[in-house]
Amino acid sequence: MATGTHTVVIPVEVQTVWDYVSDLEKWATTVPAYKEHEITNERQSVWTFEGSVKGIKKTIKAQVDITEWNEPSNIKFELKGLSDNFTGSGHFTAEEINDKTTMTCTVEVHAGGLSGAMLTPLIKWAVPKVASRLTESIARKIAVFS
Fold first, then answer.
1. What is the pLDDT of residues 47-75, one digit of tens each?
2. Between 14-21 and 116-145, two packed helices, what is the crossing angle to 10 degrees?
3. DSSP state of 28
4. HSE-CB of 109 using CA atoms within 13 angstroms
5. Is the distance from CB of 124 to CB of 111 less than 8 angstroms?
C-alpha cells in the first residue's frame, strides 16, 4: 500500500475552504495527471488520468465514491480502479485556527492482482507526490479566488 499525506495552511476561514473542496467541479482539474472526469451523481464520479513513466504512456480510470460529507471540515472518499486492479481511500480535513485553515489531504492506494507487484513501486512513488501537488494546487486556487 502507498500513502501520501500533505498539509497546508491557507489564510482563509474554514467555510471558504469547504465551499471550494465540496464542489468537485472547482478542483477536479488540479489533480495531477488529470485528463477528464464524469459525474455519475452527487457522491460518485469516474476520473481518467493519463501520464507517462519512462516513456510508457498509461491511461487509468478510477471510480471515486464520496463516503462522508461533514461540513465544514471533512470529506472522505474511496477509490476503485476500473482500468487496473487497485483500490484506495482518502480524505480532506480542514481546521480553522485564528482565521486561517489547516487543510490536510491523505490518499492511500493498494494495487492488487497479478499486476500489483509491478504497479506497487510506481504507486509508492506517485501517491505521495499526488497528495502533495493536489493539496498545494487547491490551496493556491482558494487563496486566489478568496
1. 998 877 667 788 889 999 999 999 999 99
2. 130
3. G
4. 27
5. no
Say how far apart CA 58 and CA 50 lie, in whole Å: 6
Residue 139 CB coordination number (10 Å): 23
Give the pLDDT score at 54. 67
| Residue 86 and residue 1 in contact, taking contact as beta carbons nearer than 8 Å | no
Task: Copy the grid coordinates of residue 91.
Answer: 480524505
More confident residue, 28 or 99: 99
CA distance 71 to 46: 23
Residues counted in the chain: 146
Q: What is the pLDDT of residue 24?
A: 83
Grid cell in block for residue 64: 471515486
Q: What distances in angstroms separate CA 26 from CA 11, 22, 107, 141, one per listed residue?
A: 19, 9, 19, 9
